[in-house]
């Protein structure tokens, strides 16, 4: 078993949460999301982001608007919907629980 496979699965598991966090800051362009996710080593290719954005849009968690660009075609900017903000709050609570639980297990091992 390769550790890289498990690491990839762990990242995939929280990618949706990270995308919603980025969008929660305000209007964001997909390439800016991709840049941040790549810098954080959370995503590998553009082909991963767009299907996720479509799924989140179809779930009514985010919306987008087209904005004219001076340097090319119009750009699609994403924002969270009210439902998306509520969903993100639930994910944040779950994230805190997972971190606490994981830390508890790690610390318990060190104490033995």
Radius of gyration: 17 Å
Structural class: alpha+beta
Number of strands: 3
State the name of the first-level CATH class.
Mainly Alpha
| Major sheet description | 3 strands, antiparallel
Number of helices: 4
What separation lies between the terminal Cα atoms? 27 Å
Runs in which pLDDT lies below 50 for 5 or more consecutive residues are none
Mean pLDDT: 91
CATH topology: Arc Repressor Mutant, subunit A
Strand order of the largest sheet: 1-3-2
- Assigned CATH superfamily: Winged helix-like DNA-binding domain superfamily/Winged helix DNA-binding domain
Strand and helix order: HEHHEEH
Q: How many separate structural domains?
A: 1
Helical amount = 55-70%
Strand content: 15-25%
What is the 3D form? globular
What is the annotated CATH architecture?
Orthogonal Bundle
Tell me the layout of helices and strands.
Layout lengths: L2 H21 L4 E2 H10 L6 H13 L3 E8 L2 E9 L1 H30 L1
Antiparallel strand pairs: 1-3, 2-3
């Amino acid at each position: 078993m390769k550790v890289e496979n498990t690491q990839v699965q762990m990242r995939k598991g929280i990618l949706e949460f990270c995308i919603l966090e980025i969008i929660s800051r305000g209007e964001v362009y997909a390439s800016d999301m991709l840049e941040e996710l790549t810098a954080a080593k959370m995503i590998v290719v553009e082909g991963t982001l767009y299907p996720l954005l479509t799924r989140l849009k179809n779930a009514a968690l985010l919306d987008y608007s087209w904005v004219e660009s001076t340097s090319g075609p119009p750009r699609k900017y994403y924002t969270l919907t009210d439902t998306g903000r509520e969903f993100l709050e639930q994910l944040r609570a779950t994230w805190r629980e997972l971190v606490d639980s994981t830390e508890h297990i790690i610390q318990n091992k060190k104490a033995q």
